[in-house]
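User: Some background: our group keeps a shared notebook of sequences we're curious about, and every so often someone picks one and asks for a predicted structure to add to the entry. Today it's my turn. The entry only has the sequence so far, pasted here. Could you supply the structure so I can complete it?
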Amino acid sequence: MRRESPKNMTKYPFRSTLAASALALLLAAPSFAQEDKVLAKVGSEEITQSELDQAMADMSQQFSQFPEGQRAARALDALIDIEVFAALAKQEGIDQDPELMRRMALLQKRALHNGYFTNKVQAGVTDEQLKARYDQEIANAPRQKEVKARHILVKTEEEANAIIEELKGGADFVELAKTKSTGPSGPQGGDLGFFGSGRMVPEFEKAAFALEPGKFTEAPVKTQFGFHVIKVDEVRDTPLPTFEQSKEQLRQLVLTEAYAEAIKTGRESVGAEVLDDSLKLPEGQ
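Assistant: Of course. Here's the predicted structure to add to the notebook entry:
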């Protein structure tokens, strides 16, 4: 009688693409290059330790398939490939191709977009802000009830009525569930644990939430699974998540709001206008 609960999976949208990462490696000379160990040379170009570290960080998912001891060598090999093709592209004049130049310009802007977000927006979100937001959300969170219930499931109404008569006569619910319930929770005395609204089929849920702690249904409850005799052991407010349990979800929420606010302020500051009316988004989107 339990319903499946879809899992919400939140993915954070502001990540550099592999192409943007590679471009950033080629275009951005590290400020501490004079301290870098040179690991390889491709023509006149040098590949340094800082570039390797950056590649391994930006492309960690790609290299995770290799044994840990091979990842640095694989990353360096990939950087050499990038440098080789970049050199060949320049020799052939491909770097001057208008379409490629437009693409490279866009990739560079995307890398700058991500850099601004990381350094100015993401870095501004502190644990203190997250805790304050947690307190606010918890204060406004609706309190919901949940029950801890047991049940005995049988095939016929007659069987269920007979069990109810035994319970009225003082029989132990747990022992009856172990010996007579056909449900998977029978061996555990019919224990279903705590559940809130929307977790059980409607008929079962309505009957369970109508009971006081310690009481059982005095009429069989029919569902698609058969006939139930239900007993409620406890009623409580659904426990609210702790700060640590909510922290990462709150971070995504606060970052999304901070991003939206930074974009709004940035558009006003820099000046942004859509000139083609057919491409304008509706207000609020």
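Suggested note for the entry: The two ends are 40 Å apart (CA to CA). Confidence is low (pLDDT under 50) at residues 3-33.
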